[in-house]
């Protein structure tokens, strides 16, 4: 039996006073606000409430006017949670016409209502663990909710779908909240839809960056996924608490609440086919969010093979159209206090178990003034705990002097580099990207390479960005290879939901040609509620445009494989060092190999052909076709074992290694 009323407390401007707004939702009658205090409390006089509240001690005034109950304490502020429980207990007994002793009224509310809220940042596990990091985003949401709502709900965090499935079977939640990224959308949605099938009263909430920004596209997204009751956008902490309070006031009757069409901050939902959008607002001070580490929420994950994840800043000042954080709403960078960061690092170091890596979630680590303090804090725990030996972080896109200084502090643990993406100014303009100059980039690589023999560097290049061509991509690769980085990370341009590059305007302007494919490793098979759940995560990539044919795209992929084979991992370091000493270009040597197939052995040529065939075979015209190619395949089990569905670049690099 649930509480008949929800009492929402708000602190008065006068010290020692708290006002309680009482809301009630009657099944089948929609959401109503009871205005009369006497009616809310039943037929008995209000002084019954005063008597019980006085028994709590420390209270000298209780008054009821309209729907506001005012309680004034003699000293410190009243215990809000206790007062809420007393009012709810009292009303429950009035409603049922039962007598109750003081102890019953003043005790824990007589309710067996389901107050469990499960939050999942799920990863596919069909072919190994796809996302090897702590569930940081959902843990922030849970930490803030616990701070604001106390013990009114039982919050639990999940990373693995198997554990979530078991918990939902033994202790079903009232609310299931799942994060949505490009790599786990199908897993999160299929699991929630199946859960909703078995328990139609379950409230399903999604959150995360994989969501449109245009109203019509939001409407389509939610219509295509009817199991999602609410979508919390951008920073989810405040919006999720607002949503829980409104649902609680409606006794978790989703249909009744949606009929009110009441906006929820940072949240979208459908009401009778109409999109109700609560607008977007960022958190003014991220330090209002408790640390999920220091509050113990993350403790269970230290026993798992996952990398602790640290966030020291939120936001990104850059406007890259291919990135979700390139949107204006992310432009202001906000930082967590360094004292908190230091405490979190020590907390992690004391508990980490067999994992050498620390992942930093910041978008531009190393370029901000506070990053050096973070690096020094990391160096401190390295000295004491010999952890972390590897720091994984996205390098800041400018202020290379500060980046170099930060790299030096971390004793070779941070593999720093430059996310160039393209060296062509027109391509960079098309994606609203600004890079450091060629000279500054060379200085950055030289400085990091000079830090010692163990220093590692990388550069990132994306194939197929708007306006890219074969010649421009080759120039970008030359730019990276001849700068003497240890690795060149080569990616294909992916259209992420909610980015400017994903817009129809950009597609039309540059004549983008796209295909759909399985995300490498994005598969899984799970037992849930007595049913088998097969999952394939699909992404959309650019394979051509007005400036690049599909054949040129394949030619670029061939060059990517040659660089992956001969440059990355140092197979030919001594040869390349000798060439550079003589003033020769390593990239030009690879370009010769690219042009002259007659230089290859038969086995080497066969593997190159297989690589290009594999690139073509993985591509489909629609998301549905790509998904069916995996889930409808009689060899689906081979995707789970890793025989199929791998990263073709790395797979064929290994084959070429064996030939050499």
Kindly identify the CATH topology of the domain at 116-277: Rossmann fold
Please give the number of β-strands: 22
Classify the helix fraction into a percent range: 25-40%
Shape: globular
The protein's oligomeric status is single chain
**How many whole angstroms does the radius of gyration measure?**
29 Å
Structural features, described:
With 660 residues, the protein is α/β, with parallel strands linked by helices. The chain contains 24 helices and 22 strands. It has a seven-stranded mixed beta sheet with strand order 7-6-8-9-10-11-12, with helices on both faces. Strands 1, 2, 3, 4 and 5 form a five-stranded antiparallel beta sheet that branches. Strand 19 (457-463), helix 16 (470-481) and strand 20 (487-492) form a beta-alpha-beta unit. Helix 2 packs antiparallel against helix 3 (80-96), helix 11 packs parallel to helix 12 and helix 13 packs parallel to helix 15 (438-449). Residues 302-529 form the Radical SAM core domain. Its cofactor is [4Fe-4S] cluster.
């Amino acid at each position: 039996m649930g509480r008949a009323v929800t009492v929402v407390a708000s602190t008065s401007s006068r010290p020692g006073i708290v006002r309680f707004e009482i809301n009630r939702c009657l099944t089948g009658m929609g959401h109503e606000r009871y205005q009369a205090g006497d009616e809310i409390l039943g037929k008995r006089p209000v002084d019954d409430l005063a008597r019980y509240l006085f028994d709590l001690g420390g209270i000298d005034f209780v008054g009821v006017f309209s729907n506001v109950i005012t309680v004034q304490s003699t000293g410190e502020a009243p215990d809000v949670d206790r007062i809420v429980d007393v009012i709810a207990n009292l009303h429950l007994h009035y409603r049922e016409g039962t007598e109750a002793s003081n102890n019953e009224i003043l005790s824990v509310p007589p309710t067996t209502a389901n107050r469990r809220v499960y939050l999942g940042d799920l990863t596919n596990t069909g072919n190994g663990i796809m996302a090897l990091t702590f569930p940081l985003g959902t843990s922030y949401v849970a930490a803030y909710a616990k701070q604001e709502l106390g013990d009114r709900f039982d919050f639990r965090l999940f990373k693995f779908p198997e554990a979530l499935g078991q918990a939902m079977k033994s202790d079903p939640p009232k609310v299931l909240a799942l994060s949505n990224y490009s790599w786990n959308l199908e897993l999160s949605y299929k699991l929630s839809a199946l859960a909703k099938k078995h328990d139609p009263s379950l409230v399903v909430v999604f959150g995360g960056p994989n969501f449109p920004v245009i109203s019509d596209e939001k409407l389509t997204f939610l219509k295509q996924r009817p199991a999602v009751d609410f979508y919390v956008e951008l920073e989810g902490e405040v919006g999720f608490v607002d949503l829980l309070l409104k649902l609680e006031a409606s006794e978790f009757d989703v249909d009744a609440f949606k009929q009110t069409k009441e906006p929820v901050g940072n949240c979208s939902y459908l009401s009778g086919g109409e999109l109700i959008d609560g607008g977007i607002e960022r958190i003014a001070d991220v330090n209002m969010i408790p640390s999920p580490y220091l509050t113990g929420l993350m403790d269970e994950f230290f026993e798992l093979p996952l990398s602790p994840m640290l966030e020291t800043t939120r936001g990104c000042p850059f406007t890259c159209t291919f990135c979700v954080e390139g949107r204006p709403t992310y432009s202001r960078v906000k930082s967590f206090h360094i004292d908190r960061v230091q405490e979190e690092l020590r907390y992690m170091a004391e508990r980490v178990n067999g994992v050498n890596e620390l992942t930093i979630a910041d978008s531009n680590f190393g370029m901000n003034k506070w990053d050096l303090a973070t690096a020094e804090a990391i160096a401190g725990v390295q000295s004491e705990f010999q952890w972390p030996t590897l720091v994984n972080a996205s390098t800041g896109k400018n202020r290379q002097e500060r980046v170099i200084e930060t790299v030096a502090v971390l004793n070779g643990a941070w593999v720093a580099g430059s996310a160039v993406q393209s060296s062509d100014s027109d391509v960079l303009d098309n994606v609203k990207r600004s890079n450091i100059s060629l000279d500054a980039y060379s200085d950055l690589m030289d400085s990091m390479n000079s830090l010692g023999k163990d220093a590692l560097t990388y550069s990132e290049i994306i194939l197929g960005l708007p306006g890219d061509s074969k010649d421009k991509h080759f120039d970008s690769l030359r730019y990276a290879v001849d700068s003497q980085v240890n690795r060149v990370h080569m990616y294909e341009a992916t259209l992420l939901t909610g980015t400017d590059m994903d817009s129809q305007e950009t597609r039309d302007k540059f004549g983008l040609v796209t295909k759909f494919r399985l995300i490498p490793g994005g598969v899984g098979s799970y037992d849930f509620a007595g049913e088998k759940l097969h999952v394939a995560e699909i992404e959309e990539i650019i394979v051509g445009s007005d400036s690049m044919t599909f054949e040129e795209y394949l030619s670029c992929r061939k060059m990517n494989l040659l660089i992956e084979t001969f440059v990355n991992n140092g197979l030919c370091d001594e040869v390349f060092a000798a060439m550079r000493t003589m003033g020769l270009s390593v990239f030009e040597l690879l370009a010769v190999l690219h042009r002259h197939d007659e230089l290859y052995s038969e086995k080497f040529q066969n593997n190159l052909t297989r690589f290009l065939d594999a690139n073509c075979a993985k591509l489909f015209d629609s998301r549905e076709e790509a998904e069916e190619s995996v889930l409808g395949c009689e060899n689906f089990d081979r995707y789970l074992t890793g025989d199929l569905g791998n990263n073709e670049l790395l797979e064929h690099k290994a084959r070429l290694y064996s030939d050499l």
